[in-house]
Design goal:
The structure is a single chain. The protein folds into 3 domains: 3-134; 164-218, SH3 type barrels, CATH 2.30.30; 226-325, Alpha-Beta Plaits. Helices cover 53% and strands 17% of the residues. The chain has helices at 3-27, 32-52, 68-98, 106-128, 133-150, 152-167, 208-213, 240-253, 289-307; strands at residues 175-178, 183-189, 193-197, 203-207, 216-218, 226-235, 264-270, 274-283, 323-325. Strands 4-3-2-1-5 form a 5-stranded antiparallel β-sheet. Strands 7-8-6-9 form a 4-stranded antiparallel β-sheet. The longest helix has 31 residues, at 68-98. The termini are far apart.
Length: 326
């Protein structure tokens, strides 16, 4: 075909491509379905013009002419490959939304989008400008090695983040505890780090490589409920059975704990002076753990006074009881 044969189709494709970009931006991020429809319509229109003009986007530049027509045709090729990438990305985002993937898949989505854009860029270089990819890829490989050595720590964080995401150790909103004692709710994950919102309302930023090297306990799985164990020492002036019944009534009177599974009272040890027991109960989340424990201690103090039980004097400087989270 001559340049004149290509001129009108090139202009149509350029107009459709630029118009598609404008409408795509007008749709905004809040309307992914509308964006996808726009992408499909404009991409289909551009493809139809290519087909009617018998222009193959995967052909090398021997089809392109010289001068202004060649410029328009190259621009048309760039726009066509760009709209192809956007259409594929649009389908990908819609697919992720339909299968209700949570936002922890952000890293995987970024990788997929980057791969699609890279493929489109290489296609433009090869099929629009007719440049051999072998030399380019070889040069890019050398540059990649240099950058890889220079950015070794950053790349370690990136790949650790990918591994954590694929392993699904946690999702956004989960409360996790690390082996060094750091704990908090996952509020953000990105290429380099993971942010935890602690109980003190501070944000801890952890590099993904550091997080991957530590043991992670997910306190939000299989659900948000958590076991609290409260130790109490009762003077051995009453029978263990009576002590157990009174402590169980304390748990039954609480309004802050979970009823299923039911709370339990475990008698730990007994001697001539002390009966040591442990109150085991669950709460809906760690956020109300302290309030629930405080309520149990208040109820325990009242029942002991009402039923004639005496709290045993501590053998050390420790207080009445302590709670632990499992």
């Amino acid at each position: 075909m001559s340049g004149d044969d290509h001129l009108l189709p090139s202009i149509l494709i350029d107009v459709l491509g630029i118009a598609g970009i404008c409408v795509w931006h007008i749709q905004g991020r809040s309307r992914p379905s509308g964006r996808l429809i726009v992408q499909i319509l404009f991409f289909a229109g551009m493809s139809l013009v290519l087909f009617m003009a018998r222009i193959a986007p995967h052909r090398t530049d021997d089809l392109y002419t010289h001068g202004f027509a060649a410029l328009l045709l190259k621009l048309a090729g760039i726009l066509w490959w760009t709209h192809l990438a956007w259409t594929i990305i649009g389908f990908f985002h819609i697919y992720v939304g339909l299968i209700r993937k949570p936002r922890e898949a952000h890293l995987i989505q970024d990788m997929a989008v980057a791969t699609i854009y890279l493929g489109a860029m290489l296609s433009v270089i090869r099929f629009v400008f007719g440049m051999p990819l072998g030399t380019l890829l070889t040069t890019s490989g050398v540059v990649a090695v240099i950058f890889g050595l220079a950015l070794q720590n950053t790349l370690g964080d990136v790949f650790s983040g990918i591994a954590l995401t694929l392993g699904k150790a946690y999702v956004l909103g989960d409360w996790i505890r690390l082996s060094d004692g750091t704990e908090g709710r996952v509020t953000e994950t990105n290429w380099r780090s993971t942010n935890l919102l602690t109980g003190a309302n501070n944000v801890v930023v952890l590099p993904n490589s550091v997080l991957a090297r530590q043991g992670v306990t997910n306190l939000s799985r299989p659900d948000e409920t958590h076991l609290i164990a409260l130790s109490v020492r009762i003077a051995a002036t009453q029978s263990p059975k009576l002590v157990e019944d009174i402590l169980r009534s304390v748990l039954e009177a609480s309004t802050s704990i979970v009823r299923d599974p039911p709370p339990a009272v475990a008698l730990k040890t007994i001697d001539a002076i002390v009966i040591e027991a442990e109150l085991q109960f669950r709460v809906d989340s760690l956020a109300i753990g302290t309030a629930a424990k405080n309520e149990i201690i208040e109820l325990l103090h009242r029942r002991c006074g009402a039923d004639g039980l005496s709290l045993a004097a501590p053998t050390t400087c420790s207080s009445l009881g302590h709670g632990r989270y499992d």
